[in-house]
Design brief:
mainly alpha; 13 helices; 3% strand; two-stranded antiparallel sheet
Length: 243
Amino acid sequence: MAEAGDQALLHYFEDNFEDRFFRKVLEDIEMRHRIYLESDGFKLKRAFKKSGITSSAKTKVLIYATMHASKAAILECLNGIPVTEWASPVRRFFRRCTCQDISQEKCGVIAVNRIPCVFPDLTATHWVRFCPVPTIGNMIRHLWFAQLNVSEGLLRQQKNWEMSVSQELGMGEFQGYDWESKSNDMYPLRMPNGSIFKPENDFHTRTDIEEWIALYPKAANQSMLDEDLADSKMSSGMEVQGL
């Protein structure tokens, strides 16, 4: 990652609400997922425990998994960062505790593209901040989008996309019951200060999301991107998982 991009990320991690909010949600995972031993939240918590990663580095794990759906791309990006207090444990976590396909998961190892699905509202915030072209069309092409509180029409579009790419993403055959379950999560979108972005009605429409995207200045998106991220396949939704 280029030095300027690295500094922007560090500033973002230190000054934004995600660090505090992320840690609070982690504390609640065991309760929320205690009866779902194979849930993404439980898998991530188990992987964190196995790695011994610090609380401050966990937010970095989320953002890199959001930036790239490919384990190889994440490690390539991290390998370009000088040794820092957080870079080494984050690099070690992705090397030892993640895999590419869900079929490769085992105790303490989670598929990279499942990590953003644990915190869809934070993932959406990362996506809008870092994506060079933050449009609704690009946003729909992510697994976590179906977990947001969005209109039926937008959910149908996301479902059609997910059905077409499920195997290519390493998820195996599309499972309708899994999709129906996550589409009922209805996570909110969040304002830049962390508060909930309230829709005009009971759910976010295309117009609501366009207004939400406009809250995040384009300059911020560009300043936080490095060459690796810019070269990723964001427009297809295949290489970059979220932001």
